[in-house]
Structures are given as structure tokens and as C-alpha cells.
Fold these 3 entries.
Entry 1:
Amino acid sequence: MNMPSRIELRDAKFEVEGKAILHGLDLDIAAPRIGIIGRNGSGKSTLARLLVGLVAPSSGDVRINGHDLAKDRRAALREVGILFQNPEHQIIFPTVIEEIAFGVGQLGQSKTEAAENAKEILARFGLSHWENAYIASLSQGQKHLVCLMAIVAMAPKLLILDEPFAGLDIPTKAQLTRYLAHYEGSLVHITHDLADLEGYEQLIWIDQGNIKMTGARDDVIAAYLEAMHALGGDDDLADLSR
Ligand SMILES: Nc1ncnc2c1ncn2[C@@H]1O[C@H](COP(=O)(O)OP(=O)(O)OP(=O)(O)O)[C@@H](O)[C@H]1O
């Protein structure tokens, strides 16, 4: 396994049209496997977009392995990859091979090399027969898998997974879990299913745009579950519509 990627946030704020979504986050963490948990609308996906540099903080600083990825898009290609909750946000090409080859092509490989690489990754997943398949003809879970293959083909040092198992059937999820367990780079995994974070060292709990807690997995899960069970007894949904 590679050296874990370092994630540094200094008073990082993110706001949209004057509405604060993330409030001055501070974080300095490096672990091979990091989970992010928190309620719906707490700011997890926004944090993921900030980490990969798809959005810049409104103020403050976000660095991955020392790079400001919102400014340095070339570094971003090597340092990070993200698997979105919704594959439709990721896919740009009609066929599986084109989609996978595009990412590796971005890293500077020739068209032939990129296509060879894409074929290799399809073979590794036992999906060589998907090479010329039209992505539009695949199911939602299969599209998710194409996106994952496209990203791992680029071998980013830090791979951010935003609910990567949403909509996947049990065997597919089990296969992906096994594959990800062997991923050489670091993983940041956002999920509502705490069982997905088995074997993860560190957890970050996001609550209403703040970091409520970071620490060892079991400690954060215990505190989180206690808070969630307390809230589960309450019928007031008002805090979901901030
Ligand atoms: N571009 C945007 N414009 C306006 N509001 C936004 C924007 N992006 C996010 N938000 C708001 O910020 C809050 C956090 O959203 P985010 O998607 O980061 O939450 P989340 O923790 O990933 O939620 P979930 O678990 O439901 O996926 C929500 O209230 C959301 O409506």
C-alpha cells in the first residue's frame, strides 16, 4: 500500500449565494482508509467536491498532499479521483471503452496506450465483453461500475467514493468491496451504511456543515449512533430543510 494521502483544511468555508454550507473546517489527517458520515444534507458531498478541487473554498485553504487542487488541475489528475453518487454526473462518452480510455488519456497516454489500458482494466474486472457496449444500455449499477473502472484506471493517490454502493446488488457490492480493499492508494468513503466502513481507521462526522468529530472508527461510530438514536425518537423533520 502507498503512503497515505494527507488532507489539510484550514478554516475552509464554502458558501453558495451567501448561504454557508461548510463553516470554517479545520482538518489535518492522513490515513489509508477514511470514512465520512453524517446526516442527509450535512455537507458530505460538498466536502468531497472541495477535496477534489471541483469547487474552491469561499475562504480558507484546502490541500491534498500539499497541492491546492482547485488551482492546480494538472496535479488534481494524479492526486485524486472521485466516484459520484450519480454516475450520470460522470459519464461523457457513449461506449464503455471510450469512457475508461478518456481518463487515462488525460494523464498523457497516447490513444493506443489508453485503449490498451482500458482493455486491461475491463479484463481485471472480468468484463471484457463490455468493451463496445453502449453505456446508455447499462443498468444504473452497471454504469456505476463503469465509472469506478474509469477512475481506478487512472490510479489516483486518493480516491473519494461518494456512496459508491448505492443501487448495487449484493454480489456486485461484495466484489467492489473486495476490489477496493486492495486499492493501493488512499480511500475516503462517504456512506450512510456504517457496515461499509469495516476496516477503516479514521472517521469524520459532519454535522450541519461542521466537523462534529474525527477519530478512530469505533469511537466516532459509538458517539454518532448515540446521537442518531436520540434524534430517531423525534418526529421533527424541520432540521432536514435548512
Ligand atoms: N450548489 C448548491 N446550491 C445550493 N445549495 C447547495 C448546493 N450544494 C449543496 N447545497 C446544500 O448544502 C447542503 C449540504 O449538501 P450535501 O449534498 O453536501 O449534503 P450530504 O451530506 O452529501 O447529503 P446526503 O447525505 O443527503 O447526500 C444541503 O442543504 C444542500 O441543499
Entry 2:
Amino acid sequence: MYANILDGRKISQEIRKNIMDEVHKLKLNYGITPGLSVIIVGDDEASHVYVSMKEKACKMVGFHSEVYKLPKETTQDQLIKLIDGLNHNDKIHGILVQLPLPEGIDENLINSHILPSKDVDGFHAINTGNLLLGEESFIPCTPRGIIELIKRTGEDITGKHAVVVGRSNIVGKPVGVLLLRENMTVTICHSKTKNIEEHLRMADVIVAAAGIPELIKGNMIKKDAIVIDAGTRKVGDKLVGDVEFKEASKVASWITPVPGGVGPMTIAMLLENTLKAAKKKCE
Ligand SMILES: NC(=O)C1=CN([C@@H]2O[C@H](COP(=O)(O)OP(=O)(O)OC[C@H]3O[C@@H](n4cnc5c(N)ncnc54)[C@H](OP(=O)(O)O)[C@@H]3O)[C@@H](O)[C@H]2O)C=CC1
Ligand SMILES: Nc1nc(=O)c2c([nH]1)NC[C@@H]1CN(c3ccc(C(=O)N[C@@H](CCC(=O)O)C(=O)O)cc3)C=[N+]21
């Protein structure tokens, strides 16, 4: 094993500890308890697992947390009414609608019904636009977690080449924007990219977010690259990333494991965003 491991579990624990302290101060000085509402529609098993992880994390740091579990037949209008109520609820500082939503519900439309100041996922068009403009905004949790992991390597990435695999609105695209903000030169690959291996071999930083188990092999990675694997896919009863971990860790300088890499960081960043939303109440 050549690579250093970026231990998302450990880093997220440190972040949570800080959040816990901040929550304590916020309660003591302002009487505010950060509150997060999570809405989940339908009965996708993996989504329910993620939501209960979020709920548990909220409880651990002393947040007020509410989960709304709605049947898959829920209409767009019903969902909007629920969001409207939460927008007006003073106990709630952050609202998250778990994706994907059942067919027939417009995700962008739903996300843009959340007040931008409570949009802790950063998926509202206003937050998305501000991210692109370089203005203050809520930054999506997984991309934020990925940048935090890269920073923890301590390596200077200025002017170096990043290759992102995946262009979704929740991971690939925003992570590309954030890497650009870190002064990297960014290539974004996707399912139509013809010469993906060629791009990968040039990368100083690889961010994998395709959701294809072990798509990226060890021999596609440049020596000493930083490899961040956001992919998570159940194969049998194992959770597998987009990177062939064993081979990749023989060439990369830093690598994230799956599980225990990007996943826990996503949740830590959700807590940070919710804390930030609650703190705005004290300004
Ligand atoms: N750890 C965490 O906290 C999180 C993990 N995830 C995981 O990250 C992965 C991606 O999630 P998400 O962005 O929502 O997924 P999407 O399915 O929305 O997007 C996948 C992206 O990967 C691209 N892609 C698919 N196949 C290939 C291929 N063979 N070569 C290159 N690119 C390909 C797609 O291209 P195209 O656009 O052309 O279709 C698309 O842009 C999943 O495994 C998901 O579980 C997601 C969110 C959080
Ligand atoms: N509105 C919205 N916001 C999201 O942030 C969001 C979403 N929808 N839909 C789905 C994806 C996925 N996601 C994960 C969060 C944590 C882990 C995580 O902590 N995973 C653990 C393992 C968990 C397990 O064992 O299954 C790990 O990687 O170590 C994974 C995935 C957030 N997402």
C-alpha cells in the first residue's frame, strides 16, 4: 500500500465535534437550536438509509431534526405545501428534499420552492447561480466535502489538472466549479466522453462520481495523483466505489476509501450548512 488514506470518518468526527461546541454556544447565548427538516418521498431503501444517517448525525450534535416520510403517490402540490409550511417555521433553519424524487415530480422546481436561506443542500437555482458567480451561497454538501478532503492532504493543487468523472447537478458539476475556484484546470468527463482514460492519466486530482463500480482502474491513474471516490454502489452486500481501490492505492499519493471517505463528509457538511443557516438568525 503506497497511498495515504483520506479518512473521511475521522475527519468528519473532528468536524462534528466542533459543530457540537458551536451548537452549545448558540443555545447558551441566543437560545437557538439549529433545526433541519428532511423530506423523503417513496420507499427507496438506500434513500431511507441515508436519511436515517442524517437524522442520527443531527441528534448527535444537538440539532432539532424532523423527518417527513411521504408515500410515493405524493403529488408535487402536496410537497410544495409542506415546503411552504417549513419555510415559515422558525424552528427550522434547513430543509432538504432527498433525491431522487419519484417520476413525475420536477426536482428543480421542488428545490427552488425552498427558501434560498434554508436551502442547506445548495440546490436552489439562486444558490446554484451564486456558486457559479463566485458569490456567497450554500454549497452542495458532497462537493464541499470533496474539497475539504483535498485540502486535508496539504498538497498545493494550484494550477494543476483535475479530472472529474460525472456531471450531475449534485456532484460532478458543482465540484468542477469548486475545483476551478481552487485554481485548478478542470476537465469534466461523462458517459459520452470518448477518451476518458487519456484524460484520467493526465490528472493530478481525480474526482470520481459516476456510480459505476470500479470504472477507474489502477493503470489509468498517474503516479502520486490524489484520488477522491464519491461513487457508492451496492454490489451484493458490499458498497463499492468508482475506483479499483486496491490497484489505485499502489499509485495514488492520497486516496479515499469506500465506505468511509466522501460519504461521512457529505453528512458533516450538511450539518455545517445547517449551523450556518441557524447562525444567520443571530446576525
Ligand atoms: N458519498 C456521497 O455522499 C454521495 C455519493 N453519491 C454517489 O456518487 C455517484 C454519482 O452520483 P450522482 O451524481 O447522483 O449520479 P448520476 O447518475 O446523476 O450521474 C452520474 C454521472 O456519471 C456519468 N457516467 C455514467 N457512466 C459513466 C461512464 N461509464 N463513464 C463516464 N461517466 C459516466 C453520467 O454521465 P451522463 O451525464 O452522460 O449520463 C453522469 O454525469 C453514485 O454512485 C452516488 O451513489 C452521490 C451523492 C452523494
Ligand atoms: N437532497 C439530497 N442531498 C444529498 O446529500 C443526497 C441526496 N439528496 N440523495 C442521495 C445522495 C447520497 N448521499 C449520501 C450521503 C451519505 C453517505 C454515506 O455516509 N455513506 C457511508 C456508507 C453508508 C452505507 O453503508 O450505506 C460511507 O460512504 O461511508 C452516502 C451517500 C447523499 N445524497
Entry 3:
Amino acid sequence: MLQFHQVHKAYATPQGPLPVLRGIDLRLAPGESLALMGESGSGKSTLLHLAAGLDLPDSGEVCLAGRSLSALTEPARAHLRRDTLGLVFQQFHLVPSLNVGDNLRLQARLAGRDDPAWSSELLERLGLAGLERRYPEQLSGGQQQRLAIGRALAPRPALLLADEPTGNLDEETADEVLTLLLALVRDTGSALLVVTHSPRVAAPLDRCLRLSHGRVDDAAITGAT
Ligand SMILES: Nc1ncnc2c1ncn2[C@@H]1O[C@H](COP(=O)(O)OP(=O)(O)OP(=O)(O)O)[C@@H](O)[C@H]1O
């Protein structure tokens, strides 16, 4: 589903290049769930952006659904993203001028995979049924996060990429949203890559990798930070 082969990435800074990823190998099978942990600044978001084709590696290869991202044009990468990925970031990126129902179905409509029955089920299971005509600003933070998850899962993406999907929520709401997210991902059959600082988020996933000094190690989930 997703493969990194010897991926290197550095950022240009006034002090010279800052190497962030130094030879990353990673493989995520269809339907598999993976937590990516590591200290602040270790390169987790960088890796997620490369996985989504929002940025490209300096060397090495990132393959998504069997396609090498560096070999595609930007429009072709955008198509592949639309057809393959669901994205959930800490900032929810909801469209303020669209109501809850239209926000939820936006990605699915863009991907040509709008399924009204599945959208209704998502609204129901995410506790948003009855709120379809509200606008994002009329929702609580937890409700907005659940809507962002619903929007990402509405097209049944082959891979869901999530950056601290419960980072802005209190612990109780975070647990609730995580449980829902995992149940929905299982039902959709999506693979899942979650960037998180939280061992509570990583614990229920199939595997956990830790990013450190630009490389990945398999991490024991218990006690990993
Ligand atoms: N556009 C950029 N230009 C220069 N340096 C950058 C850029 N983006 C990120 N960095 C640096 O690259 C390193 C990795 O950043 P990244 O955001 O990937 O880390 P992270 O593990 O996601 O951190 P956090 O857990 O704090 O979100 C950091 O040292 C950061 O300052």
C-alpha cells in the first residue's frame, strides 16, 4: 500500500541543509495499521507529507498504491491522493461555508465515490446525525474532529494518514474519537498510518515505529514516546 525505500530528506536553512530523514525504509500492507512515534522535531510530519506526496524526497523512493510518487507530475499526484488517501490533520481543515452534511461528503464527491447510505451511517456512528445543517463553527472541537474523520473516510480510502488525530481533544473525548476511528478504519478495510506522541493512541494499532535521528526502529509500544 505504502513503501519507503531509502528515503532521504533535508530542509534548506540559513545554517545549511538540515537532514531530517536519513534512509527510511518502511512498508505498510493493505489494511494494516501503524503508529509513528518519536520526539518533537524527529521528522514525523515530514514523513507523513512525503507519504501523501505533498512533498518529495531528495533521494530514495516513496510508492503509494504501487506508483512511485517522484515519477508523477503534480496533477497526477493530486489525482492519486484523491483516489487513494484520506487525510486527518490536527487542524481540521473543514470548509466553513459548507454545512456538516456537505463537509462530510466533500471528499467522496470529489473522488466520484459519494455513497449516501455510507455517509448517513458515518454521521450516525460519529454522533453527528441531526447536525447536518449546522456549520463547522457551530460544532464543538470534538464534533469538528469527528466530522474531519468522517470526511476522510466517506470515500473509503485505501489508506488513512492521520497526524495527531486526537491531539486537540481532552483525554476522554480523545479516547472516544480514537475508538471510533479504529472501528471505522476496520470496517472500511483502510490501512492506517498515525503520527502520535501518545502511547494510548499507538497501543491498539498493529505496529509501532519510532523515528529517531532520521531513521526508524521497531518500538515496543508499551512505554514508547
Ligand atoms: N519547511 C521547513 N524548513 C526548514 N526546516 C523544517 C521545515 N519543516 C520542518 N523543519 C524542521 O525539520 C525537523 C522535523 O520537523 P517535523 O515537523 O517533521 O517534526 P515532527 O517529528 O513532526 O515534530 P512535532 O512532533 O513537533 O510535530 C524539525 O527540526 C523542524 O524544525
